[in-house]
Design a protein that fits this description.
This protein has 11 helices and 17 strands. The protein is α/β, with parallel strands linked by helices. This is Carboxynorspermidine/carboxyspermidine decarboxylase.
Length: 385
């Protein structure tokens, strides 16, 4: 769909509704075929102005903080699937009130809050609240340690040697999350490791949450294998299966629209400074790290073509993304469009240096642009004291 950029401020995250619906239609077809529940993970996509669209296809969402839980309640109308590495005493009552599922990261966390869960259930017999334990199958194919929950010393999940032969009373489910934008072949090997260590406990569970990282909307992903894997484990252990992808839902559904503010020579290297920041507005590109695609540009320098090192507008020396080649020289005022900037980008933005956050908008299916939010001084000030 052709976007009329004359209507769009710079910088701006632009979600394309048609692309989001295309992803959601595919995801819905998977959950229908596999007989599982696929829910939205807010840590990857918290654009609540788009939640009415997501709700047309998905029946749940998962949170990792009380604020995310509230966003799910307020803008999706769902009770949350909630997991936190550790719960705060002063928040736990509200989390129980607002959640349908609560996963505990350790046995000590479960033992700490078990009495409160039992008392809450007794006082609210009509409220459905199911508890689970996160496990560490000690198998992951995630290459970046920052995103690998199975590295030695990981604080995420319980290893098999720490669990008894029977699930603790009050624990209904098992949760694992060891994938990160992986394929169904990786899931297949992960499930083999999970069954080897936790198969006896799976027979006792009512549900299995396979976490996120299932990049089923990526071109080439083996959907049929995913459906078969989910269906097989569901039938084998007679339990409900839940998946909570983060990236897959908003994968390639939108852009970050930016403008060239200055072009300069730096010791023989041409540099273009943009009205955005890689460190503040795209931190995931530096953490993962990965080099985002730019529409109409070459990802790597091409001999003979105008080549620029793209930098952000903060004073951080490392606020740059590397070198790209273009078919013609860049000039002040030129527009730079970063592809696939909706998932794991907006959720991580900061106002470092007092730099304004990019605006947020939706390019609707009727080919109209809707500006959802713009930011200014108040947004910066409210994060400080």
């Amino acid at each position: 769909m052709a976007i009329d950029f004359k209507e769009i401020p710079s910088p701006c995250f632009v979600l394309e509704e048609e692309l989001l619906r295309k992803n959601l239609e595919l995801i819905d077809s998977v959950q229908q075929a596999a007989g599982c529940q696929i829910i939205l993970a807010l840590k990857g996509f918290s654009m609540y102005s788009a939640f009415p669209i997501v709700k047309e296809y998905l029946s749940g969402a998962t949170a990792s903080s009380l604020n995310e839980v509230k966003l799910i309640n307020d803008f999706m109308g769902y009770q949350s699937h909630t997991y936190m590495p550790a719960y705060l005493d002063n928040e736990f009552e509200e989390i129980m009130q607002r959640s349908s599922h609560i996963t505990f990261n350790s046995l000590s966390q479960w033992e700490r809050f078990q009495g409160r869960v039992e008392a809450y259930k007794a006082a609210n017999p009509d409220k459905t609240l199911s508890c689970g334990i996160r496990v560490n199958p000690q198998y992951s194919e995630v290459a970046t340690d920052m995103y690998n929950p199975c590295v030695p010393g990981s604080r995420l999940g319980v290893t098999r040697d720490k669990l008894p032969d029977e699930l603790p009373a009050g624990i209904d489910g098992i949760h694992f999350h060891t994938l990160c934008e992986n394929g169904s072949d990786t899931l297949e090997r992960t499930l083999a490791a999970l069954e080897k260590r936790f198969g006896d406990l799976l027979h006792q569970a009512k549900w299995l949450n396979m976490g996120g990282g299932h990049l089923m909307t990526r071109e080439g992903y083996d959907i049929s294998k995913l459906i078969k894997l989910v269906s097989t484990i569901k039938e084998k252990y007679n339990l409900e299966v839940i998946l909570e992808p983060g990236s897959a839902i908003a994968w390639r559904t939108g852009i970050l629209y930016t403008t060239v503010l200055d072009v300069l020579d730096s010791q023989g290297i041409d540099v273009a400074i943009l009205d955005t920041s890689f460190a503040a507005h795209m931190p995931d590109t530096l953490e993962m790290p990965y080099k985002p695609a730019i529409r109409g540009a070459h990802q790597e320098p091409v001999a003979g073509k105008p080549t620029y090192r793209l930098g952000g507008m903060t004073c951080l020396a490392g606020d740059y993304m590397g070198d790209y080649s273009f078919d013609k020289p860049l000039e002040i005022g030129d527009k730079i469009i970063f592809e696939d900037m909706i998932h794991y980008t907006m959720v991580k933005t900061t106002t470092f240096n007092g730099v304004n956050l990019p605006s947020i908008g939706i390019w609707k299916t009727d080919q109209e642009f809707r500006l959802v939010r713009s930011y200014g001084y108040e947004s910066f000030k409210d994060r400080l004291s």
